[in-house]
Amino acid sequence: MIQELIREALEARSRAYAPYSRFQVGAALRCEGIVHSGCNVENAAYPLGTCAEAGAIAAMVRGGGRRIEEIVIVGEDAPCTPCGGCRQKLREFGLPDLRIHMISPKGDMLMTRTLSELLPDAFGPDHLG
Length: 129
Ligand code: THU
Hints:
The chain contains four helices and five strands; from the N terminus they run αββαβαββα. It is an alpha+beta fold. It has one domain: Cytidine Deaminase, domain 2, CATH 3.40.140.10. It binds tetrahydrodeoxyuridine. The site of tetrahydrodeoxyuridine (THU) has 15 residues, from α2.
């Protein structure tokens, strides 16, 4: 199961558009048995760039999915932990015990954290009733 996420995250990373930072990122998540992936897409107007996680989430929603069950992220050799904004985006579709795996470009597992570890006491959909 995790092997498919790893394979897809690496494949997504290979398509990253990161001419400015040169920091390529891939993300792959599983939702109801289906894997969705994304890569970072930068822009000459720098703030408009989007993260790999955001791309994977958009693909999931486009496919009708609403629940992230597990996600793999790959950047460089140090664990590519999701940025603050993406942690909040993951919260929208992930439960506190969502497992977030960071892998190396070679596919080695570097770190695993739960969403609640990365975003404790999160504000989320439940707050809005
Ligand atoms: N980036 C991601 O796509 N995901 C992360 O978790 C961290 C950062 C991207 C954004 C930007 O294109 C590049 O990596 C450098 O920040």
